[in-house]
């Protein structure tokens, strides 16, 4: 019928919608939007992509693996600039599994064809006592034991979460656990497993249901698991790949011998800035990063925090200035609806690495660190029930900790973050005053 709307066809055929699946040579744990916009995207854009298929396992989500399997592991990546959307089908996933399928996970890691494992398990996933993802280190050790038993050769583990020295953190957790289970396994891991440190960056907001209709209308394909992301992307890596790797550097990844300055730049300026807006900005009624950064008061707070953090970065001033300018462009992209509630989650894991190091460095120089302490004050108000809802693995402990008079609550929370902060009368009084101002 003339003028009738076209019914989108399902995104499910590699022959027509994507490219043929590549042999599985890498495994990923944590099949979420960020991974699909970042590590999977880098592999998709490598010149040797047809040699490096990915078998991906979910972390928290149970249904995503089933959805993607129904689409032959294909999905649409929507790159959203301030003026337009660009659509591409990513074909780098060759298979998707539920995270509960531990037998297949061990079998994949035991295959000599598999050369590396990437992970996006959130900061909490590296703590053996954490809830939700507490079994991740155990699963990794069990899979590495299977690889050793199969004599499958060396492998590289590439964590991609916002932790300083994330490769070293993962290596220590794995070595400790393996040593408790089997000292011979621990020796094999030391000899045969390489752990790579990384810095990753690409804003990937939660999917809006309207994006499903947008993708269908723009592409003619009904995709039940698209990903929306921003144009900017960064991946910095340090470490060795004894069994090889995709040519990620040809897709824009950066390999370096000194990763700490890049870690700090990203954690303090981008992630710390996000936390400031999530806690203090939401108290001013804002819901997204773009809304908050459009507020002159929030923008002033952000500049104050960035000034403090930048003073402790070992990078050229021009590079820091360029990075800050790029962040303002990214934060101000109203078409990327990065929810403050999403950023505010898991503050107990984030603030100790995003904010506390700068505050301690500022106090060591005798400066007040108002910018950094405002982030903590906003978090204090958040834990006391103001702003966006609380979502934190230690919520019960922390909400109890901050009950009662504001000054006492501030002192206890600061001591929880770092005893030196709780013992600092200037810090306690500043946080108390800032929190009182934010909550009025």
What does this structure look like?
The chain has 440 residues and is an alpha/beta fold. Helix content is 48%, strand content 13%. It is built from 21 helices and 14 strands. Strands 6-3-2-7-8-9 form a six-stranded parallel β-sheet. Strand 4 (75-80) and strand 5 (85-90) form a beta hairpin. The model is unreliable at 130-134 (pLDDT under 50).
Biggest sheet character = 6 strands, parallel
What is the beta-strand fraction?
Answer: 5-15%
Strand order of the largest sheet: 6-3-2-7-8-9
Inertia-based shape: globular
- Stretches with pLDDT under 50, minimum 5 residues: 130-134
Radius of gyration equals: 22 Å
Give the structural class.
Answer: alpha/beta
- Tell me the total number of β-strands: 14
The chain-level mean pLDDT equals 94
Helix content: 40-55%
Quickly count the helices: 21
Summarize the structure.
This protein is an alpha/beta fold.
SSE layout:
Elements: E1 9-10, H1 14-17, E2 24-29, H2 33-37, H3 39-44, E3 53-57, H4 63-70, E4 75-80, E5 85-90, E6 93-97, H5 102-109, E7 116-119, H6 136-150, E8 155-159, H7 166-181, H8 183-192, E9 193-195, E10 197-201, H9 209-219, E11 221-222, E12 227-229, E13 234-238, E14 254-255, H10 260-281, H11 289-293, H12 296-310, H13 317-331, H14 340-344, H15 347-354, H16 356-364, H17 370-383, H18 395-401, H19 406-417, H20 419-422, H21 425-438
Parallel strand pairs: 1-11, 2-3, 2-7, 3-6, 4-12, 7-8, 8-9, 13-14
Antiparallel strand pairs: 4-5, 10-13
Helix pairs in contact: 5-6, 6-7, 7-8, 10-12, 10-15, 10-17, 12-17, 17-21, 19-21
């Amino acid at each position: 019928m003339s003028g009738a709307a076209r019914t989108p066809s399902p995104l499910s055929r590699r022959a027509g919608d994507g490219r043929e699946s590549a042999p599985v040579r890498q495994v990923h744990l944590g099949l979420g939007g960020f991974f699909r916009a970042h590590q999977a995207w880098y592999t998709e854009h490598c010149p040797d992509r047809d040699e490096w298929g990915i078998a991906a396992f979910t972390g928290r989500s149970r249904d995503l693996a089933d959805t993607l399997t129904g689409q032959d592991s294909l999905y649409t990546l929507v790159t959203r600039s301030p003026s337009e959307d660009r659509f591409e089908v990513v074909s780098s996933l060759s298979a998707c599994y539920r995270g509960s399928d531990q037998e297949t996970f061990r079998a994949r890691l035991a295959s000599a064809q598999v050369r590396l494992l990437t992970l996006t398990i959130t900061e909490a996933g590296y703590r053996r006592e954490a809830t939700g993802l507490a079994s991740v280190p155990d699963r990794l050790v069990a899979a590495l034991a299977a690889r050793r038993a199969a004599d499958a050769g060396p492998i590289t583990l590439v964590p991609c979460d916002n932790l300083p020295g994330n490769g070293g953190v993962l290596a220590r957790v794995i070595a400790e656990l393996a040593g408790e289970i089997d000292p011979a396994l621990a020796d094999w891991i030391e000899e045969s497993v390489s752990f790579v440190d990384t810095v990753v960056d690409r804003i990937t907001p939660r999917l809006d249901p309207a994006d499903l209709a947008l993708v269908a209308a723009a592409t003619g394909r009904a995709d039940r698991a698209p990903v929306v992301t921003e144009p900017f992307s960064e991946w910095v890596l340090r470490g060795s790949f004894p069994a090889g790797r995709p040519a990620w550097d040809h897709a824009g990844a950066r390999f370096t011998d000194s990763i700490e300055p890049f870690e700090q730049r990203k954690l303090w300026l981008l992630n710390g800035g996000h936390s400031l807006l999530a806690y203090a900005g939401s108290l001013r009624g804002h819901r997204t990063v773009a809304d908050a950064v459009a507020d002159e008061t929030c923008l002033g707070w952000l500049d104050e925090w960035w000034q403090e953090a930048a003073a402790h970065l070992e990078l050229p001033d021009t590079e820091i200035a360029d990075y800050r300018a790029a962040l303002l462009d990214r934060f101000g992209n109203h078409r990327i609806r990065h929810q403050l509630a999403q950023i505010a989650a898991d503050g107990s894991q984030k603030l100790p690495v995003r904010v506390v190091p700068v505050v301690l460095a500022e106090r060591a120089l005798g400066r007040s660190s108002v910018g950094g302490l405002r982030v903590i004050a906003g978090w204090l108000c958040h834990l006391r029930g103001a702003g966006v809802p609380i979502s934190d693995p230690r919520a019960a402990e922390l909400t109890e900790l901050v009950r009662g008079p504001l000054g006492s609550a501030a002192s206890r929370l600061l001591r929880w973050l770092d005893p030196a902060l709780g013992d600092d009368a200037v810090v306690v009084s500043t946080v108390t005053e800032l929190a009182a101002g934010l909550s009025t």
